[in-house]
Design brief:
It contains 21 helices and 21 strands. The chain is α/β, with parallel strands linked by helices and about 600 residues long. Strands 11-10-12-13-21-20-19-16-17 form a nine-stranded mixed β-sheet, with helices on both faces. A hairpin with a 5-residue loop joins β20 and β21. α4 packs across α5 and α15 crosses α16.
């Protein structure tokens, strides 16, 4: 097993997750099986109890693990299925060690950070690195480990010490360190400053880890002079300094890293036995994906009506799923965030400007998405958005709480149950159309929801969402919720035109709703965004985008197949993309012929 440890310096949120994912993407394109581990130094057992404002969204895995959003990056980039133990936290490690101590496994010894905590970290990494993460069940060859936080943080010290020991445990030829650091460019001088990187590398070396690669993040491209300076002061060869400036899309990061000789370095450093000759179509899909994103001309305007819109990472997977679907249809996504509370009547009284601005944004959108959330705040605003979409035939996709508020709004304004509500919001309501699930309503909050991949069975009759999924009998999607639609009211809703087209195997839990005679009014209790991939967009999101650009009917009539024209704006755009691919082929051919000579 080969290991690549990705650390960060100077600031957090520098892009370690994308860079770690890019290492895996490059290696996977070389035919190497890759897995990933994310280490978060916080004491929480997992990310499940975090507010979205703390660390962004909570990402959910097949096995129900509530983990850091970076694992979403890994799964999307590598197209793998990770497990809850691929996310290591300080809380998990300490819980594991304390449980062993309580059982008497340490035979009366004093339990300490070194060696017991550090040993537990190393054992965990070695064990999880061998778990298969692909459908073929093959054992991974390379494990990319991202150490969260910044070098020097007190929380991360046990992990740094663990990897200092780990490099000798697994031998030098099997362990590589990539340090990601910021190279700021102050506007006052416009000159890239390398001192923060020098200090960060010096601190990392002082803790016993020497970087094999230094990945420099910057706003603008860094020239060879700066690379030479970093090389001289950080004791690495110039080819070991990789520069990543802000790019048009994250899909260009693996391409940029590959162009700077990352494969050649890793091949030699980790003895991977990768062929030096690249096939003509090497990373072709990624190159086409990046080129397509850069050359889209028409736009689709989607409004996201949410509760955590001050931090875009709170809806990271939703945003990615919308991008995947938009790209598949040939449109550039323009996503507008609308604070749900600003659509409410109370805001009109307190802050009329915010109210009118929010409604103006909503009215200009081509489609609307109402994502999940918890708590009372913004619920009425989400209902207003659902009501507006329902009455104006505007495409709408609701997710989790989005389904629940759509059901409540329908009960109030169509069925006439004016005080209908969820027991989460009003436990005394006369019409509890959304109720808590008893087995998931416990004193503990962490890990007690209905979590992970579960089966949804479609009803026999035809529905738009069923056709989008390929007319299958059922699907498996990931869940994260504690409340559900009250099955006692289902017949009333269906009689009025709101159909529950998908249910669980028992037929008691409602999974998908669809409004009859509407352009596209769909909501799911599960979270389809978690299984969306750049080249395999999620069906509900694809339906929303197609409906928003007026192409859903033609797509369904062709048997759910995109035509070449629908994947671009017009014939000239098709020609542009073809010419780009031809030029890319010619360039690759020239390079290959030169290498052969």
């Amino acid at each position: 097993m080969k290991y690549i440890l990705v650390t960060g310096g100077v600031i957090s949120g520098i892009g370690k997750g994308v860079i770690a994912s890019s290492f895996g993407t490059i290696l996977k394109n070389c035919g190497i099986q890759v897995t990933s581990i994310k280490i978060d130094p916080y004491i929480n057992i997992d990310a499940g109890t975090f507010s979205p404002y703390e660390h962004g969204e909570v990402y959910v895995l097949d096995d129900g693990g509530e983990v850091d959003l970076d694992l979403g990056n890994y799964e999307r980039f590598l197209d793998v299925t990770l497990h809850r133990d691929n996310n290591i936290t300080t809380g998990k490690i300490y819980q594991y060690v304390i449980n062993k101590e309580r059982r008497g496994d340490y035979l009366g010894k004093t339990v300490q950070v070194v060696p017991h905590i550090t040993d537990a970290i190393q054992e965990w990494v070695e064990k999880i690195a061998t778990h298969p993460v692909t459908e073929d069940g093959n054992k991974p060859m390379v494990c990319v480990i991202e150490l969260g936080g910044t070098i020097g943080d007190i929380e991360g010290m046990p992990f740094v010490e663990a990897f200092r020991q780990f490099q000798f445990r697994v031998k030098k030829e099997n362990f590589c360190v990539a340090h990601v650091s910021l190279v700021p460019q102050p506007k006052s001088t416009g000159e890239p400053k390398t001192k923060p990187t020098q200090a960060s590398v010096r601190e990392l070396r002082g803790l016993g880890l020497s970087p094999d690669l230094i990945v420099c993040r910057s706003e603008q491209a860094i020239g060879p002079v700066v690379k030479e300076k970093i090389s001289n002061f950080c004791h690495v060869a110039p080819e070991q300094v990789i520069t990543i400036h802000d790019l048009s899309s994250i899909y260009r990061v693996p391409l940029l890293m590959e162009s700077q000789g990352v494969i050649e370095f890793l091949n030699e450093r980790l003895q991977l036995n990768i062929s030096q000759i690249r096939p003509r179509n090497f990373m072709r899909k990624w190159r086409d994906l990046a080129d397509s994103m850069d050359h889209l001309r028409k736009s689709v305007n989607i409004s996201l009506v949410g509760k955590y819109t001050k931090l875009e990472d709170a809806y990271a997977s939703v945003t990615k799923a919308l991008q995947h679907a938009s790209l598949a249809v040939g449109f550039k996504l323009k996503l507008t965030y609308i604070e749900a509370a600003n659509l409410e009547q109370q805001t009109l009284l307190d802050h009329p400007i915010l109210y009118h601005e929010a409604w103006q944004k909503l009215c200009k959108s081509n489609g609307v998405i109402v994502p999940g959330g918890f708590g009372k705040r913004g619920i009425e605003g989400k209902m207003e958005a659902c009501k507006w979409c329902r009455k104006n035939n505007k495409p709408m996709l609701g997710i989790c709480l989005g389904l629940q508020v759509a059901v409540i709004e329908f009960a109030r304004n169509v069925l006439g149950w004016t005080n209908a509500n969820s027991t989460e919001i009003d436990p005394t309501t006369d019409h509890p159309v959304v109720i808590d699930m008893p087995e998931h309503n416990t004193d503990q909050k962490g890990g007690t929801m209905r979590l992970g991949k579960r089966y949804t069975r479609f009803k026999p009759e035809t529905s738009v969402i069923k056709r989008l999924y390929g007319n299958v009998d059922g699907i498996e999607e990931r869940h994260r919720h504690r409340y559900e639609v009250n099955p006692q009211y289902v017949s009333d809703f269906e009689a009025a035109g709101l159909k529950f087209v998908g249910q669980d195997t028992s037929g008691q839990r409602m999974e998908i709703i669809e409004l009859v005679d509407h352009n596209y009014y769909v909501a799911t209790q599960y979270h389809p965004e978690y299984l969306s991939r750049p080249m395999k967009p999620s069906a509900p999101f694809l339906g929303l985008i197609l409906a928003s650009v007026g192409k859903l009917k033609s797509y369904l009539n062709r048997g759910c197949k995109l035509s070449p024209r629908e994947q671009s704006d017009n014939d000239s755009d098709d020609d542009d993309l073809v010419n780009l691919r031809i030029a890319s082929d010619i360039k690759e051919k020239v390079v290959i012929e030169a290498e052969e000579k």
